[in-house]
Amino acid sequence: MEIKELERIASQTRRDIVRMVAAVNSGHPGGSLGCTDFLTVLYNHVMKHTPSPFSMDGIGEDVFYLSNGHISPVWYSTLARCGYFPVAELGTFRKLGGRLQGHPSTDKGLPGIRAASGSLGQGLSMAIGTAETKKLNGDKSLVYTLHGDGELQEGQIWEAAMYAAAKKIDNVIATIDFNGRQIDGDVDDVLSLGNLKQKWQAFGWEVLEMDGHNMQELIDTLSKAKSMTGQGKPICIMMTTEMGQGVDFMVGSHKWHGVAPNEEQLADALSQLEETLGDY
Amino acid sequence: MIDSMEKHVEVTGKKDTRSGFGEGLHELGKINANVVALCADLTGSLKMNAFENDFPERFFQVGIAEANMMGIAAGMTVGGKIPYTGTFANFSTGRVYDQIRQSIAYSQKNVKICASHAGLTLGEDGATHQILEDIGMMKMLPNMAVIVPCDFNQTKQATIAIADHDGPVYLRFGRPSVPIFTPADKKFEIGKADIILEGADVSIIACGHLVWKAIEAAQQLAEQGIDAEVINMHTIKPLDEAAILATATKTGCVVTAEEHMLNGGLGDSVAQVLARHLPTPQEYVGVNDSFGESGTPDELMAKYGIDTKDVIEAAKRVIGRKK
């Protein structure tokens, strides 16, 4: 897909995100806006996947797990805009009886979701499990994950990291949303991750880096990561992003981690984001 | 007077229930190519060696990292595998409750959580490992089936049967060698209680190692002229409510017996059924809000009130409460 088209999708997804959280006065716009470009490229350019009919088993398809489930708005918009479910359903986000739960879940049957997430640190293990099953099934497709940087404070991530290298899980590509922010402030102040690149390398992973807001770099780095699969090592991409990217008063601040814009702020945000594919 | 010979139960041997799990898993390996097994550094203790030896490509040693094991198991279901995780009951539940809750139960993943060394009968290792809260934790999770078989044969059959149940299962078994009294070829039915002994005066509803204690109690009660019914409630969830109501209707009083805390165990589940449908006097045999300690299994069962004599005393108490 052309970069221009990817940018059009990303702009619409950002509109969807701020409208969704504003409509229910809750949700997580900051990280969602920061990961919009990544998920747009992943779902529209990189992954081999079938939106409809959705297959939970994902045999022959690339599978994605969102480990930092609180950025559900960007994932829901991405899935809807790919055709997993009607775009109009974005209007049910966080509403009683809806399939678009605050954090992703499987129990309402929303197509595209293969595991609940929200309690952090669990997605990498899940991805490794699916990667093991793909190996057993002789299925050459890949498993992708996305994690927050603050999420890496959870111990289970490092259990999984150790396992993946020791057992040569070379069909997983884990991306870290490295925005340096978490709920209580900067990651460096809350609990520094130290030298994260060296940590992943020391755990036995191949580590790539990319700018999460440069479409060409996202395409090139993910393509490179794909070319490195099947060689005995798991792959981690450290993706630099800005929380709140695309909305000037949100960008770069942890304050918009889990706060919805009010009516005035919403109008301001939408004035900065072109409506390209039609609002839901 | 009743004839105590009527309370005879044929014992065909003595073995640990964990070995029943090991044999069942090995059997499954042969008949179901989708079954995979994961273990957190306790392959020998869980008796998973035969599966590991014969199906090495389907055996996953995850090391001492139970949270990761639960997540990997959940992920393996995506693509059609049926993962069986194996570690001690403590590390299968309390240590990984949130992983089970989110990645397995809420995510509706077809994982079989197989937990050995449950309860006090783990023995000398002491309270750190003697989990007595696991049935409660697991039965509270929506989508989770909870199964506590009573002997070697039943544990083997249950291990095989749960592969055909689409959804998460908690299978609890133990370390000590205990009498084998269920038929080797009896197919396990999830949620269908077994009537081990029929009786008219009191119903003893038990699970796991306490089923044998209940049988011993029924035999000794018979010598004293008390006719006890013994029900093996091997499935705590989904619970066989019909069997509970039938036996309570018949005898008019109930004793529940389990190697678990009184809070949250089988007794609680039975009491809920009776309270709603058929208020009936009930006495509980279980551990009363206490951690265990080091000791032999027999010493511990005696000290913590889950022995044959405790079942007998509870039966007499509850009979005394009948109107």
Round the mean pLDDT of chain B to the nearest integer and report it.
97
**Widest β-sheet, arrangement of strands of chain A:** 1-2-3-7-6
Q: Spans of chain A with pLDDT under 50 lasting ≥5 residues?
A: none
Total of domains of chain B:
2
Radius of gyration of chain A: 17 Å
Give, in order, the helices and strands of chain B: EHEHEHEHHEHEHEEEEHEEHEHEHH
Which CATH class of chain A applies here?
A: Alpha Beta
Beta-strand portion of chain B reads 15-25%
Strand portion of chain A: 5-15%
Largest interface: A-B, 40 and 32 residues
Q: Look up the CATH topology of chain A.
A: Rossmann fold
Oligomer: heterodimer
Query: Into which percent range does the helicity of residues of chain A fall?
Result: 25-40%
Q: List the strand order in the largest sheet of chain B.
A: 3-2-4-5-7-6-12
CATH superfamily of chain A: Thiamin diphosphate (ThDP)-binding fold, Pyr/PP domains
User: What would CATH call the architecture of the largest domain in chain B?
Assistant: 3-Layer(aba) Sandwich
Which blocks of ≥5 consecutive residues of chain B have pLDDT under 50? none
Tally of separate domains of chain A: 1
| H and E order of chain A | HHHEHHEHEEEHHEHEH
C-alpha Rg of chain B (nearest Å): 19 Å
Describe this structure in words.
- The complex is a heterodimer of chains A (280) and B (323).
- Chain A contains 10 helices and 7 strands.
- Chain A has 280 residues and is α/β, with parallel strands linked by helices.
- Chain A has a single domain, classed as Thiamin diphosphate (ThDP)-binding fold, Pyr/PP domains (Rossmann fold, 3-Layer(aba) Sandwich), CATH 3.40.50.970.
- Chain A has a 5-stranded parallel β-sheet, with helices on both faces.
- Chain A is globular.
- The mean pLDDT of chain A is 97.
- By secondary structure, chain B is α/β, with parallel strands linked by helices.
- Chain B has a 7-stranded mixed β-sheet with strand order 3-2-4-5-7-6-12, sandwiched between helices. A 5-stranded mixed β-sheet of chain B has the order 9-11-10-13-14, with helices on both faces. Chain B has a two-stranded antiparallel ribbon with strand order 1-8.
- Chain B is globular, with a radius of gyration of 19 Å.
- The chains are: A alpha/beta (280), B alpha/beta (323).
- The interface between A and B is large, with 40 and 32 residues.
